[in-house]
């Protein structure tokens, strides 16, 4: 923002202004720069980013590249998940069901997964973390993946993300190979 990080600008403004005014300024500038994100399904918190951080410990983060993908329709925002069904089908709280190649959870810093995902094999009810220890807690059943639950910061999250990407690629290749074996006559398979 204005050639500076939002955090750096906030800290500078907080030297002279109260939190509520800095929050108001940040929200106004963000709306000018990003537009009304609510029309894309990204509802903004009712309080400013600094108050939100002070009250809940949560930090609002929005990658501009991701927002561009949302605006173009490459990424679609969906409501909360009611439950995961077999064969990588998701049922949303509005009753709609959709199939996905992969399901990746993005839940924030403190896991509340057991409160909304009715699945007992991958996540512990006690702390909401994967039952399997690092580095094996990233993969569940039916295409369920989890990144960043390792308490190992960005390094742990990047290891999880790479494992997931490799697994999705492996699944995709296996499925593509299986489909090509069905689609091509046997005598042509060695040339494909």
Automatic annotation (TrEMBL):
InterPro entries: Auxin_biosynth/cation_transpt, FAD/NAD-bd_sf, Flavin_mOase-like. Keywords: Auxin biosynthesis, FAD, Flavoprotein, Monooxygenase, NADP, Oxidoreductase. It is an enzyme of class 1 (oxidoreductase). It comes from the Eukaryota. GO terms for biological process: auxin biosynthetic process. Pathway: Plant hormone metabolism; auxin biosynthesis. Its cofactor is FAD. This is Flavin-containing monooxygenase. GO terms for molecular function: flavin adenine dinucleotide binding; indole-3-pyruvate monooxygenase activity; N,N-dimethylaniline monooxygenase activity; NADP binding. It comes from Sesamum angolense. Pfam families: FMO-like. Its EC number is 1.-.-.-. Coiled coil: none annotated. Gene3D superfamilies: FAD/NAD(P)-binding domain (3.50.50.60). It catalyses: indole-3-pyruvate + NADPH + O2 + H(+) = (indol-3-yl)acetate + CO2 + NADP(+) + H2O. Belongs to the FMO family.
């Amino acid at each position: 923002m204005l050639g500076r990080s939002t955090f750096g600008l906030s800290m500078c403004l907080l030297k002279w202004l109260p939190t509520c005014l800095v929050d108001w300024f940040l929200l106004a500038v963000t709306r000018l720069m990003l537009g009304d994100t609510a029309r894309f399904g990204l509802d903004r918190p009712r309080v400013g980013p600094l108050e939100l951080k002070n009250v809940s410990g949560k930090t609002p983060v929005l990658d501009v590249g991701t927002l561009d993908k949302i605006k173009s329709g490459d990424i679609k925002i969906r409501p909360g998940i009611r439950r995961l069904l077999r064969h990588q089908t998701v049922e949303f709280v509005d009753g709609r069901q959709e199939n996905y190649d992969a399901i990746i959870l993005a839940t924030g810093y403190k896991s509340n997964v057991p409160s909304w995902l009715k699945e007992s094999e991958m996540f512990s009810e006690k702390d909401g973390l994967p039952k399997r220890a690092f580095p094996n807690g990233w993969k569940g059943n039916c295409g369920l993946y989890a990144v960043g639950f390792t308490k190992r910061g960005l390094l742990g999250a990047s290891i999880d993300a790479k494992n997931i990407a490799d697994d999705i690629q492996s699944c995709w290749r296996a499925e593509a190979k299986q489909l090509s074996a069905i689609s091509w006559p046997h005598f042509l398979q060695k040339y494909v």
